[in-house]
Amino acid sequence: MGIISRGFQGRRRGSDGRLPPGQYLVHDFPVLSAGPTPRVPLDRWEFTIDTEDGRRHRWSWQDLMKLPSETPTVDIHCVTKWSKLDTAWQGVSLDVLFEEVESAAEYALIHSYGGYTTNLPVEDLLDGKAWLAYRYDGDDLAPEHGGPARLLVPHVYFWKSAKWVRGIRLLDEDEPGFWETAGYHNYGDPWREQRYEGD
């Protein structure tokens, strides 16, 4: 019979297995940004998807509001080790936006107002995995949290859910974004602790 110290419970995943390794729970919503907060008037806001052959698909704010929305409740995980469970959003699934887009590209580079970029495989944006979110917890998305609209891709670390999103460029070859070129992991799976290059 082995000896186990009193109180030993093994490696805890926390919150019924919903907390990835190395993460801790928060009940507030921390604000982390690499630069100043862009303020984009709704009458000047637009979202675009540019295909690998140069075709552009464009939506104004009014166009976006006419599209069917969803209200996903998801857990989010920041690379700085905080996690927030059961966050409530409203937005348009990227599946809806991609319905009219013909592309064979496998990669996407997401662009934000203010110059921020991040990259993801296209497959991580489709099949109910990602949204263009414009409401959080019943209110319009605040600028400090990425409003008027941000990308929401909850299955990867939250830096991939680009704030102040303005467009997606589809690519035949992967192109790292802002944090990825600064040494962060190219993909960012929180369950595999892919925080930095080499993880």
From TrEMBL:
Ranges where the record places region Disordered: 1-21
Span of domain Oxidoreductase molybdopterin-binding: 35-179
A Pfam family this chain is assigned to: Oxidored_molyb
CDD domains registered for this protein in UniProt: arch_bact_SO_family_Moco
Name of the protein described by the UniProt record: Molybdopterin-binding protein
Organism: Microbispora corallina
